[in-house]
Automatic annotation (TrEMBL):
Keywords: 4Fe-4S, Iron, Iron-sulfur, Metal-binding. InterPro entries: HCP/CODH, Prismane-like_a/b-sand, Prismane-like_sf. One of its GO terms (molecular function) is peroxidase activity. Pfam families: Prismane. GO terms for biological process: response to hydrogen peroxide. This is Carbon-monoxide dehydrogenase, catalytic subunit.
Amino acid sequence: MELTKELIKRNIIVLSAGCSSGGLENVGLMSPSAAELAGDSLKEVCKILGIPPVLNFGPCLAIGRLEIVAKELAEYLKIDIPQLPLVLSAPQWLEEQALADGCFGLALGLPLHLGSSPFIGGSKVVTKVLTEDMESLTGGKLIIEDDIIKAADELEEIILKRRKNLGLS
């Protein structure tokens, strides 16, 4: 919840799927009135469109819906998915399904933030691929950071850099 609040405050719209959606909805972040918590640019967009700054895309297994959004955006902009100003985050992942969804995002070339390390330490190969090689393989990047502000800083930096590369600053 706190990471989501920090991201919308920084004018970053949040698409939620899975376990986090219920909590975000319960605290009102999926209500149009939550636009008041957003940065000025996002607040204006939300008010014009009558939408909240956090949109629910359904259960964990709906990760494919997010891929459809990424694919459609990339096609519209005539770019590859790894160039999109999109990031994934599971700051409090609860089960392996979230990690599988995250790996799907990494394979698409999207950065993935986790608040705690996944169970990868038993394999040197998996650890190396996820923490060192992923960016050169797909464009994805695994970020493990439990500090909300540091995580928001890194996610925002990636988004702003990609926006700038696309001329969307």
